[in-house]
Amino acid sequence: MSTDATPSNIRTQASTRSRSAAISHLRLSAYDPEQTSAQHQAELFYLQKQIQAQTPMVVILEDGEQIEGCIEWYDRNALKLRGRQKTLIYKSAIKYMYKVGDAGRQGLRD
């Protein structure tokens, strides 16, 4: 089954993103020329803030794997996480991410 950009799919994706944002998750996107400037700037601001504060993060990959660490740097397509080991992660492989302490307080549900 292929994913297409019909209005109904776009609304579903938008509502999924707003639910994720409501529980302090960040869903990263690989560089998309159609992404609005405001969305792109918000993503850059969030990542820069986490780098400066050295905030411990949990990154959930599309396959369900969880990786913990602090974001060391990022670019259009990837970010580097420093944890038990240094890991380069493509943004397209990230399902969502959150701060380490947020999972217990928010009561995460899928």
Q: Can you give the mean pLDDT?
A: 76
Unreliable runs, pLDDT <50, ≥5 residues?
A: 1-23, 104-110
Oligomer: single chain
Q: How many strands?
A: 5
The CATH topology annotation reads as SH3 type barrels
Kindly, what is the distance between the CA atoms of the first and last residues, rounded to a whole number of angstroms?
A: 22 Å
Number of domains: 1
Q: How much helix, percentage-wise, in residues?
A: 25-40%
Q: Which word captures the global form?
A: globular
Radius of gyration: 14 Å
Secondary structure category: alpha+beta
Query: What CATH architecture do you see?
Result: Roll
SSE string, helix = H, strand = E? HHEEEEEH
- Content of β-strand: 25-35%
Walk across the major sheet and give the strand order.
4-3-2-1-5
Please describe the biggest sheet, giving its number of strands, its sense, and whether it closes into a barrel: 5 strands, antiparallel
User: What is the count of helical runs?
Assistant: 3
User: Tell me, what is the CATH class?
Assistant: Mainly Beta
List keywords for this structure.
alpha+beta, single chain, disordered C terminus, 3 helices, 28% strand, SH3 type barrels, 35% helix, globular, 5-stranded antiparallel sheet
Short characterization:
With 110 residues, the protein is α+β, with helices and mostly antiparallel strands.
What does this structure look like?
- By secondary structure, this protein is an alpha+beta fold.
- It has one domain: Roll (SH3 type barrels), CATH 2.30.30.
- Helix content is 35%, strand content 28%.
- It has helices spanning 7-22, 37-53, 102-106, and strands spanning 56-61, 66-74, 78-82, 86-90, 94-99.
- A five-stranded antiparallel sheet has the order 4-3-2-1-5.
- A hairpin with a 4-residue loop joins strand 1 (56-61) and strand 2.
- The chain is globular.
